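Lab notebook, bench 4. Still working through the backlog of constructs that have no structural model yet. Next entry is a single chain of 321 residues. Request: give me the structure tokens for it.
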Amino acid sequence: MKRQSSFKMEHLWDLPGGAVVKNPPAGVPCRRWGWMAVSFGFHCGLSTLLAPKAEQAPRWLPACRQKTSVSFLSRPDLPNLAYKRLKGKSPGIIFIPGYISSMNGTKALAIEEFCKSLGHAYIRLDYSGVGNSDGNLEECTVGKWSKDVLSIIDDLAEGPQILVGSSLGGWLMLHAAIARPQKVVALIGITTAADGLVTQFNQLPVEAKKEIEMKGVWSMPSKYSEEGVYRIQYSVIKEAERHCLLRGPITVNYPIRLLHGRKDDTIPWHTSMQVADRVVSTDVDVILRKNSDHRVKEKADIQLLVYTVDDLIDKLSTVVK
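Model written out:
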């Protein structure tokens, strides 16, 4: 389907085979567009404002559902990775979760349901030391988790892939796109935490940083941890410095969509603006949610995320045709 405009979506229905009608016959599988977009340009602060219409929320039909069970990717000399995969058409989608988040989060499951409904391939994973994957969390680093993502791309993904990264996953997503330009075709970052761990550490007072270096561990406050803090080894922070991206151009030249909540007090929304400025791609939208926090998991947030995935699939399919 060729869009009439990249900024205004009429209420159309896509039918199998490419037909487009406004009132589809009953029982015909289809997807419905019920939203509008207005572009302001990301250099002005708000790139794209999407206003979903509450009475026209998307519906994904259960007829396409298939069960997914946990599988494990065996890797010589590296921890086995737990993952779930749907086989389907290209482009495939890979969801990369946030820090110490498993593959069973709200966003990961919502995208899976969407991919089931359209028959697209989809993979979600647990990092080393997290969820069902092997490994010791205290020994994990940004570099090791980056290798986890590359293992999934290299050993499991077939054909072109759209990477969807949440928080830390957005940072890893960028590294994967740089490392595998032949397989990655688009990116969606959700509260992208590029350089986040290093930036947060560097914002501490000098005395606090010296104390952390001496103790060897940082008890980083977080309202998302049951204990109220994440205990991060000082060695992990130093290793993360080698993976910082915001100091220069980011050599990623694909369509990129960056979603961020303006009430995010963990990774400021300005970080997504920095990523947009640093990437060499010119096809970049920054989408700000006025009342969303770091998790970006309210119903309207999830709808927006799925709309964004769908729009990129359609864009890439049009290019291929």
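Notes after review: Residues 130 and 212 are 24 Å apart (CA to CA). The first helix runs from residue 106 to 118. Flag for follow-up if needed.
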